[in-house]
Design goal:
Helix content: over 70%
CATH superfamily: Ribosomal protein S20
Shape: elongated
Distance between the termini: 55 Å
Order of helices and strands: HHH
Number of strands: 0
CATH class: Mainly Alpha
Radius of gyration: 17 Å
CATH topology: Methane Monooxygenase Hydroxylase, Chain G, domain 1
CATH architecture: Up-down Bundle
C-alpha cells in the first residue's frame, strides 16, 4: 500500500473503476449471449431489440473509456456475422 495520501486515494479510485469496468464488460457479454440464443429462435423482433441493446452497450463502453473503439467495432462485427450464420 502507498504511503502518500493522494496515492492511497488513487488506489481506492482505481479499484472502484476496475469493479465498474468489469461489471460493464460482463453486461456486454451477457447481452451477446442473449442475442445468440435469440438468433436460434424465430422471434426476429426480439432479436433486433437485443442486437440494438448490444450495439448501445458497446458504444456506451467506448464513450466511458471501458472499451477501445476498435474492440467495440470488432465485437459488433463478429456478433453480426454469428447471427447471420445462425439465421440461415
Amino acid at each position: 500500500m502507498a504511503n502518500i495520501k493522494s496515492a492511497k486515494k488513487r488506489v481506492l479510485i482505481a479499484e472502484k473503476n476496475r469493479v465498474r469496468n468489469v461489471a460493464f464488460k460482463s453486461s456486454i457479454k451477457t447481452a451477446v449471449k442473449r442475442v445468440l440464443e435469440l438468433a436460434k429462435g424465430e422471434d426476429k423482433e426480439a432479436l433486433n431489440k437485443a442486437m440494438s441493446k448490444v450495439y448501445q452497450l458497446c458504444d456506451k463502453a467506448v464513450v466511458k473509456g471501458i472499451l477501445h473503439k476498435n474492440t467495440a467495432a470488432r465485437k459488433k462485427s463478429r456478433l453480426t456475422i454469428a447471427v447471420n450464420k445462425l439465421a440461415k
